[in-house]
Design goal:
Largest sheet: 5 strands, antiparallel
Pfam family, one: Beta-lactamase2
Helix content: 25-40%
Strand order of the largest sheet: 2-1-9-8-7
Number of helices: 10
Shape: globular
Protein name: Serine hydrolase
GO molecular function: hydrolase activity
Radius of gyration: 18 Å
Organism: Pseudonocardia humida
Number of domains: 1
Distance between the termini: 23 Å
Structural class: alpha+beta
CATH architecture: 3-Layer(aba) Sandwich
CATH topology: Beta-lactamase
CATH class: Alpha Beta
Order of helices and strands: HEEEHEEHHHHHEHHEEEH
Strand content: 15-25%
Number of strands: 9
Keywords: Hydrolase
Length: 296
């Protein structure tokens, strides 16, 4: 086997991961050529579920069901745990709904995500999956639900204890939160289809799609998809996902003056350490191979 697929598989193997990748050029008249490595394999989404939630929020705004500037008060005792954003703060925080959505994407804020899901409702997320043809994607709940499952399945007393057990290579855990049959899951092809809809102004109104593209372009993490394109002439917008051995990113890469390319890279590492720089880096390096093969 030769070509970009072979090189991508080599890179995944060298990083010690099982990997799934789908990349497709977003041409003006529809989807263009693609590069695919197991693009229809279902993978647990982790925080990538926040992307269809973002779309559901924007469609609710279009319908007049939600006011994007409505203030939301996030109280410490009711917030989902997490290392970033409102999750990491000590005091009550008040934000507009659209800035709650922004924090959910740009720093993967768990508290913001669950607050937005409470406002939007899971039924609207399911409508997005149905209307946009994401038939291989299932969203079963938010981060709060995933954490509750982890604590239960690892027989832990606290979330911190559950996370420690998940990262313990000497006592490997296999909670249902890591099973794509039992947790929120998707495929590379479904996520590039969703990204293509956002970049083509068909996921929601043109104004809301522009907002989503802006927010995805503000994501702060440079160590995965963006690491493969460290050039000022390339714009990268994306959403990461991390849970135990899972490290993902889906996004859009665009060279100046060229069509954008939607890319989804999912990985499951052989080891469970909290920090695996080689795995983060392989998301960028495999995306670079795929995008390079699709440039015009």
């Amino acid at each position: 086997m030769t070509g970009p697929q072979a090189r991508i598989r080599e890179l995944f193997a060298g990083a010690g991961v099982r990997g799934w990748l789908h990349a497709v050029r977003i041409d003006p008249d529809g989807p263009g050529p693609e590069v695919a490595v197991d693009p229809d394999g279902r993978v647990v989404m982790a925080s990538v579920y926040k992307l269809p939630l973002l779309v559901a929020f924007c469609r609710a705004v279009d319908e007049g069901a939600l006011d994007p500037v409505e203030p939301v008060r996030l109280l410490p005792e009711a917030r989902t745990a997490g290392p970033t954003g409102v999750s990491a703060m000590s005091d009550p925080v008040t934000m507009s709904l659209r800035d709650v959505a922004r924090s959910m994407i740009i720093v993967s804020d768990n508290a913001a995500a669950d607050a937005l899901l409470d406002a939007v409702g899971l039924a609207r997320v399911h409508d997005v999956l149905r209307v946009l043809g994401l038939h291989a994607t299932t969203v079963r709940g938010g981060t709060r639900d995933t954490y509750d499952t982890l604590v239960r399945d690892t027989d832990a007393d606290t979330l911190q204890d559950a996370m420690s057990r998940l990262a313990d290579n000497d006592r490997p855990a296999d909670p249902s939160a890591l099973d794509p049959l039992l947790s929120s899951a998707t495929t590379g092809r479904d996520m590039t289809r969703l990204l293509t809809a956002i970049w083509s102004d068909t996921a929601a109104s043109p104004a809301q799609c522009a907002y989503m593209r802006t927010v995805l372009g503000q994501q702060v993490w440079p160590h995965r998809l963006a690491a493969g394109f460290p050039h000022p002439a390339v714009r990268v917008a994306g959403k990461t996902g991390t849970l135990g051995p899972l490290r993902h990113e889906v996004g859009v890469v665009q060279y100046r003056g060229e069509p954008p390319v939607a890319v989804a890279v999912f990985t499951r590492a052989a080891r469970a350490e909290v920090h695996l720089p080689a795995v983060d880096a392989v998301i960028g390096s495999t995306a670079r191979v795929a995008v390079g093969a699709l440039r015009v």
